[in-house]
Specification:
The protein has 416 residues and is α/β, with parallel strands linked by helices. The chain is built from 14 helices and 21 strands. The protein is globular, with a radius of gyration of 20 Å.
C-alpha cells in the first residue's frame, strides 16, 4: 500500500505512530505521503516518528480537489486516509475516486438546515445528512472497483465493530444499540470554567451543536432533536463512575441502521459526556454566530467566524500530561438470546497517563488513532476488501477484534 495521509493533526500523527508500532507494518505499507495545509506541521509529524524512511511531507489545501488528485497521481498513491477537518472530507473522498485510489475516513460531513424542522425525518433538518454523500456514491465506486470505508476511528469505528460482533455472536435478535462515550478525565488544578476541546475543534462545533439524530423504527425512522437532548446518567464500569450523557449527531445511528436492521435492530442512539464548561462555551459560541461558515467583514478583511474559534481554542495536541483519568467508549446492546432478554456493554477503556507514557498523546487522540490504524492495517493486508462504499459493520468483526487483542488495544464485555 502507498498511503496518503491528509491531515497532520494530533490524530493523524497518532495513526502513524501506532502503525509503526507494528513489527510487520512494512510488509503491507510501502510509502506514506503526509499532506497538510501547514507544511511545517507535516514535517514535525514525521520528525516524531521512529522510522522516517519512505515518508514525505507535502503541503496541500484540501479545499482544492485538483491538487489532491495531482498528488495522488504523482506519488502513485493507492489509499487515501482522510484525517482532515470534516468540511473538506467530501473533497478528499471525491479526489480519491477521481484518481483511482481507495479511501478511508474517521467521519463524514453533514450540513444542517438553517432552520431545521426537527422531529421525524432526517431529511427535514439536514441539507446533507451524515454519510449520505458517501453512500449515495456506492454504485459509482463499485463500478470502478474501488473501495471507500468511512467511519474508522473509535466512535464511529471500534464501536461499529462491537455492534456487528454483538449481532453475530451475542444475540439471536439485536434490537437496540446505544453508543456511550464517556470517562473521568480531569485536569487537576484547572480554573473554574476553563474550556478544553479534547478533539478537533471543527468536529466538536459540528457534531455537538448540530441537531442530534437517533434511529427508532417503531416511531417511523430517524428522529431529530435540538442540541443536548436526551440527557441520562449512565454508570460506567471499571470505576469510571456515573456519567451524564447527552445525544449528539453521530454517524453510528445511520450506519447501524443500514447494516444491522437485518439482525432486528429497532433503536440506535449516540450519547456523549460533555464537560459543563464546554457546553456553556458552545452555547455562547452558537448564540453569537461564531459557528458560522459565512465570511464577515472585520475592518475590511473577510473572516470566517468558525476559523477564528478553531484558531484560538486550545488544541488537542497541546493537552495531555496534565489530564488524569481515562476514556471509556462502548455499546450498550439489548436484544433476545434463547428466547430471553439479554443486555451487554462492550467497551474499550483507555487510560490517559498510560497513553502519554506509551504514545506521548492524550487518550482521546490516541484512542481514535488506534481505531483507524487497525482498520488501515486490515485494508492494507486486503482482509477488508470489496468494491463500493462501506462502514466497519459491513465486514467480519473477528479479524478486527483479533488485532485489538494482538496490539493490546483491549476490550471488555459485561453481560447481564
Amino acid at each position: 500500500m502507498r498511503m496518503m495521509l491528509v491531515g497532520a493533526g494530533a490524530v493523524g500523527e497518532s495513526i502513524l505512530k501506532i502503525i509503526q508500532s507494528r513489527q510487520d507494518y512494512k510488509s503491507w505499507l510501502e510509502f506514506v505521503l503526509v499532506a497538510d495545509y501547514d507544511l511545517d506541521r507535516a514535517e514535525e509529524v514525521i520528525s516524531h516518528l521512529r522510522d522516517r524512511d519512505d515518508l514525505k511531507a507535502v503541503k496541500v489545501d484540501a479545499r482544492n480537489e485538483k491538487d489532491i488528485v495531482e498528488l495522488i497521481e504523482v506519488y502513485d498513491i493507492d489509499f487515501v486516509m482522510d484525517a482532515a477537518a470534516p468540511f473538506v472530507s467530501n473533497n478528499i473522498f471525491d479526489a480519491a475516486y477521481e484518481a483511482g485510489a481507495n479511501y478511508g475516513s474517521m467521519g463524514t460531513w453533514s450540513v444542517p438546515m438553517e432552520h431545521p424542522k426537527l422531529g421525524l425525518g432526517i431529511e427535514n433538518s439536514y441539507v446533507e445528512p451524515m454519510t449520505k454523500y458517501n453512500f449515495d456514491r456506492h454504485d459509482k465506486w463499485r463500478e470502478k472497483n474501488q473501495m471507500a470505508c468511512i467511519c474508522m476511528g473509535i466512535d464511529p469505528g471500534v464501536v461499529n465493530v462491537f455492534a456487528k460482533y454483538a449481532a453475530e455472536y451475542e444475540f439471536d435478535e439485536l434490537q437496540e444499540v446505544h453508543v456511550k462515550d464517556g470517562g473521568n478525565l480531569s485536569i487537576p488544578g484547572a480554573k473554574e470554567g476553563e474550556v478544553t476541546f479534547g478533539f478537533n475543534v471543527w468536529t466538536v462545533l459540528d457534531e455537538v451543536m448540530n441537531p442530534n439524530v437517533e434511529y427508532n423504527a417503531d416511531k417511523g425512522g430517524f428522529i431529530v432533536e435540538d442540541a443536548f437532548a436526551g440527557e441520562e446518567t449512565f454508570d460506567m464500569p471499571d470505576g469510571v463512575g456515573k456519567n451524564v450523557l447527552v445525544k449528539v449527531e453521530h454517524e453510528e445511528v445511520v450506519t447501524m441502521q443500514r447494516y444491522l436492521s437485518k439482525y432486528g435492530l429497532k433503536k440506535a442512539t449516540f450519547k456523549i459526556s460533555l464537560d459543563p464548561a464546554l457546553i456553556n462555551a458552545l452555547k455562547v459560541i452558537d448564540s453569537l454566530g461564531l459557528r458560522s461558515l459565512h465570511p464577515v467583514d472585520v475592518g475590511g478583511v473577510k473572516v470566517v467566524p468558525r476559523d477564528v474559534v478553531a484558531a484560538v481554542a486550545p488544541q488537542p495536541k497541546d493537552i495531555g500530561d496534565e489530564m488524569k483519568g481515562e476514556m471509556l467508549v462502548g455499546v450498550h446492546c439489548i436484544g433476545i438470546k434463547d428466547g430471553k432478554k439479554k443486555e451487554i456493554f462492550m467497551y474499550q477503556p483507555f487510560d490517559n497517563q498510560q497513553s502519554m507514557k506509551d504514545w506521548h498523546m492524550q487518550a482521546v487522540v490516541a484512542q481514535t488513532g488506534f481505531g483507524a490504524a487497525l482498520s488501515i492495517e486490515l485494508i492494507g493486508k486486503e482482509i477488508w476488501k470489496d468494491s463500493g462504499v462501506f462502514s466497519p459493520e459491513y465486514f467480519d468483526p473477528m479479524p478486527y477484534l483479533d488485532l485489538m487483542r494482538e496490539t493490546g488495544f483491549e476490550y471488555r464485555i459485561l453481560r447481564k
